[in-house]
Specification:
The protein is mostly helical. The protein contains 3 helices and no strands. It is elongated and about 55 Å long.
Protein backbone atom coordinates (compact mmCIF):
# COMPACT_ATOMS: atom_id res chain seq x y z
CA UNK A 1 0.00 0.00 0.00
CA UNK A 2 2.85 2.38 0.78
CA UNK A 3 4.34 1.85 -2.69
CA UNK A 4 1.01 2.55 -4.39
CA UNK A 5 0.33 5.57 -2.20
CA UNK A 6 3.75 7.02 -3.02
CA UNK A 7 3.23 6.47 -6.75
CA UNK A 8 -0.21 8.10 -6.64
CA UNK A 9 1.26 11.11 -4.86
CA UNK A 10 4.06 11.37 -7.41
CA UNK A 11 1.70 10.96 -10.37
CA UNK A 12 -0.91 13.52 -9.27
CA UNK A 13 0.95 16.57 -10.59
CA UNK A 14 1.75 14.73 -13.82
CA UNK A 15 -1.96 14.00 -14.35
CA UNK A 16 -2.74 17.67 -13.92
CA UNK A 17 -0.05 18.53 -16.45
CA UNK A 18 -1.50 15.98 -18.88
CA UNK A 19 -4.95 17.54 -18.65
CA UNK A 20 -3.50 21.02 -19.11
CA UNK A 21 -1.58 19.89 -22.19
CA UNK A 22 -4.76 18.33 -23.62
CA UNK A 23 -6.54 21.65 -23.10
CA UNK A 24 -3.72 23.51 -24.81
CA UNK A 25 -3.80 21.05 -27.70
CA UNK A 26 -7.57 21.48 -28.07
CA UNK A 27 -7.19 25.26 -27.98
CA UNK A 28 -4.42 25.15 -30.59
CA UNK A 29 -6.49 22.91 -32.85
CA UNK A 30 -9.55 25.17 -32.63
CA UNK A 31 -7.68 28.47 -33.00
CA UNK A 32 -8.44 30.74 -35.96
CA UNK A 33 -4.94 30.01 -37.30
CA UNK A 34 -3.30 26.61 -36.89
CA UNK A 35 0.23 26.94 -35.50
CA UNK A 36 1.99 23.74 -36.56
CA UNK A 37 5.09 24.56 -34.53
CA UNK A 38 3.01 25.04 -31.39
CA UNK A 39 1.19 21.76 -32.00
CA UNK A 40 4.50 19.96 -32.54
CA UNK A 41 5.85 21.40 -29.29
CA UNK A 42 2.72 20.36 -27.38
CA UNK A 43 3.03 16.87 -28.84
CA UNK A 44 6.66 16.68 -27.69
CA UNK A 45 5.64 17.80 -24.21
CA UNK A 46 2.85 15.20 -24.11
CA UNK A 47 5.26 12.46 -25.17
CA UNK A 48 7.81 13.44 -22.53
CA UNK A 49 5.13 13.56 -19.85
CA UNK A 50 3.81 10.16 -20.91
CA UNK A 51 7.33 8.74 -20.64
CA UNK A 52 7.73 10.18 -17.11
CA UNK A 53 4.36 8.78 -16.07
CA UNK A 54 5.06 5.37 -17.55
CA UNK A 55 8.50 5.19 -15.92
CA UNK A 56 7.08 6.04 -12.47
CA UNK A 57 4.30 3.48 -12.84
CA UNK A 58 6.79 0.81 -13.89
CA UNK A 59 9.03 1.71 -10.95
CA UNK A 60 6.11 1.23 -8.55
CA UNK A 61 5.04 -2.06 -10.15
CA UNK A 62 8.58 -3.44 -9.94
CA UNK A 63 8.94 -2.33 -6.31
CA UNK A 64 5.66 -4.04 -5.44
CA UNK A 65 6.53 -7.18 -7.39
CA UNK A 66 9.84 -7.47 -5.53
CA UNK A 67 8.13 -7.76 -2.15
CA UNK A 68 5.08 -9.81 -3.13
CA UNK A 69 4.93 -13.58 -3.36
CA UNK A 70 4.28 -15.14 -6.77
CA UNK A 71 0.67 -15.77 -5.71
CA UNK A 72 0.22 -12.17 -4.61
CA UNK A 73 1.71 -10.92 -7.90
CA UNK A 74 -0.74 -13.08 -9.82
CA UNK A 75 -3.69 -11.72 -7.79
CA UNK A 76 -2.45 -8.15 -8.35
CA UNK A 77 -2.22 -8.73 -12.11
CA UNK A 78 -5.75 -10.13 -12.16
CA UNK A 79 -7.11 -7.10 -10.27
CA UNK A 80 -5.29 -4.78 -12.67
CA UNK A 81 -6.76 -6.65 -15.64
CA UNK A 82 -10.30 -6.36 -14.30
CA UNK A 83 -9.85 -2.69 -13.57
CA UNK A 84 -8.86 -1.81 -17.13
CA UNK A 85 -8.69 1.91 -17.91
CA UNK A 86 -11.30 3.03 -15.37
CA UNK A 87 -10.25 5.90 -13.19
CA UNK A 88 -7.76 7.31 -15.66
CA UNK A 89 -9.31 10.80 -15.65
CA UNK A 90 -8.05 13.74 -13.60
CA UNK A 91 -7.82 13.15 -9.89
CA UNK A 92 -8.82 15.83 -7.41
Amino acid sequence: KAIAKSAITDLAPLRKQQWELRKQMRDALTAATIDKAKLAELHTQQTQLFDKTSARMQEAMIAAAEILTPEQRKAMAERMGRRGMRGMGPQS
